[in-house]
Amino acid sequence: MLSTAHTAHSAFAPMATMKPQLTTLDELFSTVPRESLDIGEGLFWQGDRAQHIFEISEGVLRIFKIIGDGRRVITGFLYAGDMVGLSLKDVYIYSAEAVTPVKVRRVTKKNFRDALENSPELRPQLFALMCDEMAAAQDQMVLLSRKSAEERVCSFLLLIAKRMHGDQQIGRSVQLPMSRQDMADYLGLTIETVSRTITKLVTRGVISPNGRHAFDIAKPGKLLALCGDGDSYEDAGERAVKTRQAVWPH
Amino acid sequence: MLSTAHTAHSAFAPMATMKPQLTTLDELFSTVPRESLDIGEGLFWQGDRAQHIFEISEGVLRIFKIIGDGRRVITGFLYAGDMVGLSLKDVYIYSAEAVTPVKVRRVTKKNFRDALENSPELRPQLFALMCDEMAAAQDQMVLLSRKSAEERVCSFLLLIAKRMHGDQQIGRSVQLPMSRQDMADYLGLTIETVSRTITKLVTRGVISPNGRHAFDIAKPGKLLALCGDGDSYEDAGERAVKTRQAVWPH
DNA sequence: ATGCGCTGTTACAAACTGTTACACGATTCA
DNA sequence: TGAATCGTGTAACAGTTTGTAACAGCGCAT
Fold first, then answer.
1. Domain range for residue B191?
2. B199 or A2: which leads in pLDDT
């Protein structure tokens, strides 16, 4: 599969004659035309032969797995700039569907491999991407394993708020293009619990609705405190949260 | 602790031109001495400066994160042959402790990077490792998100049974060197629920205890049916579910 | 061998989340 | 326009898992 290292010298080859030396992964995708997906349309399905790697240039995608009796788990939402399809398996082990209208570019796995072998600058970028993905997966495991419903929803709001604003700072507004069911399947909750929890946050003035798929973060500090990623000052945990619920009537 | 760590690094230090061309990741570690960890001893901690990458050559390690109020999430158990410490971050984002007596080898991140750049054969191996890790993380998300307590315990038993036998087939016996608390923190349950569930499986004759930290799988088919990875097309490719007939004639 | 400590097991009540059911508003289609 | 459908919100009830606590089993030291 990935063992096609024909050109062992390429690591040291200064410049390939035919192919331009790529310096970013984006460049690899930039030459192919964009494809469009409508809302709800699938990019690929769990079990399909995995032949391409995709880069999202616009819109939001959901990545999910389905187990036997229909239970669905969304393992991630992907935004512009993210890549999807990375795997050494012959088939995709998850499905990808458009949450919003999406535009993607695709390259074959072979071309992707070749580009990596030919460009030493690309490899650290891929490594970094995969490390970030792994770190995100572990955070998600923490969320699913030990966080309460409220902490999960707050963590999610913060995650999306960050992603919408370049991962650097938390925006004051959050767009949630996905359905409540999507959120529930991502957070390991039911749709009703998501709904209840959001209502509670609105009632307490932590966030304020801006239509059904957007919220303003009225009290970012409180949202942070409720997300469960205890910043050292918070050491009483669950009990502290309950206390606050009682203490803050408004 | 870990007093033998420093002498070995110089083995890779010399000029860039004459580095041996490695063909497997194992070889990269094989020249440095093994370090020993006692039961419960930490290899590194969340927040430590991340300077090394480790390969486990013996024993079992637990990888975990701690959030604010003391909640612990074990994100994985690592066995001989596994690598740990891969990250682009400056600090480790999780901790690693010995479940059993452990022997590890370490290389610096710099040497690791250099070896990868100099050996095209190594890169696909690392890519494969990271993909496997990612796939495992997603399976774990499914488990934590949507599986019942019983399904979690059964999945765990099957996972360990597979890993103990080279990932190829499921053994008839399972060694569980970790404590019930470790299992609970890995499965997103409480220690009591783990205990109850195991008792129930024993009562029903699915497994039979062999001391407290080992079980015989009396009804492998039943265990598979209970693990929740329904017979969806997901596993149709090459996975154990498919080979169930071959492995277990009954 | 006896006592102590840790780990694991079991029982029961409580809590959180899930389940079920229905209402509301927006959109689609006849 | 009006009915049907979809996504969502709300409420009462049910169920699984948890928390608490007491008890049992194993290992270890005295």
1. 147-247
2. B199
CB of B167 within 8 A of CB of B175? no
Residue A3 resides in a domain: no
Task: Give the separation between CA B77 and CA B57, rounded to whole angstroms.
Answer: 14
What backbone phi and psi angles, to 5 degrees, belong to A14?
A: -65, -45
- Provide the residue count of chain B: 250
ipTM over 0.85: no
- pLDDT tens digits, one per residue of A197-215: 999 888 888 999 888 899 9
Q: What percent of the residues of chain B are helix, what percent strand, and what percent coil, each to the nearest 5?
A: 40, 20, 40
Query: Is A9 among the domain residues?
Result: no
CA A146 to chain CA mean position, Å: 20
Let me know whether B71 and B22 are in one domain. yes
Residues of A in contact with B185 (CB under 8 A): 145
What is the b/e burial string over A131-152, where b = at least 16 CB atoms within 10 angstroms of the residue's CB? Answer: bebbeebbbbbbbbbbbebbbb
List CB-based contacts (under 7 A) with strand D. A 179-181, 191-192, 194-196, 198-199, 209, 212-213; B 148-150, 188-190, 192-193, 196, 212
